[in-house]
Amino acid sequence: MTGTIHRTVLRLEALVARRFSLKRTPRVIEPFIGYASEDVLFVQGRVHSKLRDSETRFGQSRIANLRQMLGMFLTSEVPGAEVHCAGQTVRADEEGYFRVDIPRDGAQGWLLFDASLPGIEGQFACPVFAPPPGDPPMVISDIDDTIMKTGAYSLLKNLWTSLTGNPLTRQVFPDGAVLLDRLNREQECPVFYVSSSPWNLFRFLEAVFDRNAVVPGPMFLRDLGLDEAKFVTDGHGDHKGRAIDTILGANPSRDAILIGDTGQEDAKVYLDASERHGDRIRAVILRTPGASIERDSLRNIEALRQRGVLTLCGRSFAGFHETLTAYLSADDPPPDQGA
């Protein structure tokens, strides 16, 4: 069944590509926020023949929002495009994604690398975040219904909110933005994001974060590729689990605080991460966006606590910073965590 659907979608993609002339000479790079390991800087992005207009205006209609949102998925990626960066040449994959691996050589902080395309004037600035040396734990946070109000726990609400909003109307949870800001400024915790949202929404999410002063950081979004290895079978938990493994592997000297919500599978994903990485998962913070917590999530939360992981849950993150920092600084067993 999956194979039939896959072949059908491939035919549809080919028809759309011919209709809208998506396979064109490379013209523009969409830079993502790259990350770093101890030895390597990873410059990331995607090559398009063009980037659709994503500028929004106050009072813009929901029809206009819908049109712009759908436009984000009618991508004009350029497979196999050559990308020049830092003296290297790489080729984009079949969906236009590329990565350039650059020796770190002690570089740290926010860095910019110029990337270019053959025959195209100008360069494209690609940011990379390389946390400075240190041992404060890093924060790995979900986005939907954790930092940004979405309604992902309800399919219909999620679709309506996602398709009819824009960066000027989408809202974040103030307590989530404050928690990340305090952990980043006061405890010097670098921040990373993992989400099942597709890379098509990167610029949208970046605009929402910028407008609402959410701490920036590398995003590990989902490739909704149409090859057999990704189509349908690559689920929410699979992607997030691999992203967490990648971030922990790139930062072996740091432990992690995982932040998410109970509306999807975050409690299970974070429990699995704790089982794989042991004491490196120092704490888990979960928002409860729905009316109640599902039974499976409750079991996974209890399992995390049984493993000795500080696990805090609530409709708001208010007060969690104080509990979390007291626990991390005292290095004592987790306090009574309640329900």
Layout of SSEs?
Elements: H1 2-20, E1 28-31, E2 35-36, E3 40-48, H2 62-71, E4 82-85, E5 88-91, E6 97-103, E7 109-116, E8 124-130, E9 138-141, H3 155-164, H4 174-186, E10 191-198, H5 202-211, E11 219-222, H6 236-250, E12 256-261, H7 266-277, E13 281-287, H8 295-306, E14 310-314, H9 320-330
Parallel strand pairs: 9-10, 9-12, 10-11, 12-13, 13-14
Antiparallel strand pairs: 1-3, 2-3, 3-6, 4-5, 4-7, 7-8
Task: Quickly list its features.
339 residues, alpha/beta, Immunoglobulin-like, Rossmann fold, 2 domains, six-stranded parallel sheet, four-stranded antiparallel sheet, 33% helix, globular
Describe the structure.
By secondary structure, the chain is an alpha/beta fold. It folds into two domains: 24-130, Immunoglobulin-like, CATH 2.60.40; 138-330, Rossmann fold (3-Layer(aba) Sandwich). Helix content is 33%, strand content 23%. A hairpin with a 3-residue loop joins strand 2 and strand 3. The chain is globular, with a radius of gyration of 20 Å.
Strand order of the largest sheet: 11-10-9-12-13-14
> How does CATH name the architecture of the largest domain?
3-Layer(aba) Sandwich
Q: Given the C-alpha coordinates, what overall shape results? A: globular
The proportion of strand residues reads 15-25%
**CATH superfamily heading of the largest domain:** HAD superfamily/HAD-like
SSE sequence, one letter per element: HEEEHEEEEEEHHEHEHEHEHEH
Helix content: 25-40%
Q: Strand tally, please? A: 14
Query: Major beta sheet, specifics?
Result: 6 strands, parallel
Protein name: DUF2183 domain-containing protein
Domain Phosphatidate phosphatase APP1 catalytic: 139-287
Organism: Kangsaoukella pontilimi
GO molecular function: phosphatidate phosphatase activity
